[in-house]
Specification:
Length: 74
């Protein structure tokens, strides 16, 4: 039992060390750009702009003439 615990701890130690090799360095400008792109307020503002653009298209489409047709077959 002691051997299994020691082996498991050694395995987790090695996996933890291997997981830390992927360090990514970014500049201050890149960090600011990532912050702006991932800001929920900016994302919500973009979605609201898209929503208002679609609403404007919907209102403009109501100005076009509507064609209705009916048929009857006896």
């Amino acid at each position: 039992m002691k051997l299994k615990i020691t082996l498991a701890l050694a395995l987790f130690g090695v996996l933890n060390v291997l997981a830390q090799d992927t360090t990514q360095y970014i500049s201050l400008n890149q960090a600011c750009q990532l912050g702006i792109e991932n800001n929920t307020n900016v994302i919500n503002a973009n979605l609201e702009m898209q929503k208002s653009a679609y609403h404007l298209k919907e209102v403009k489409s109501k100005l076009y003439p509507q064609i209705e047709g009916y048929s009857d077959f006896n």
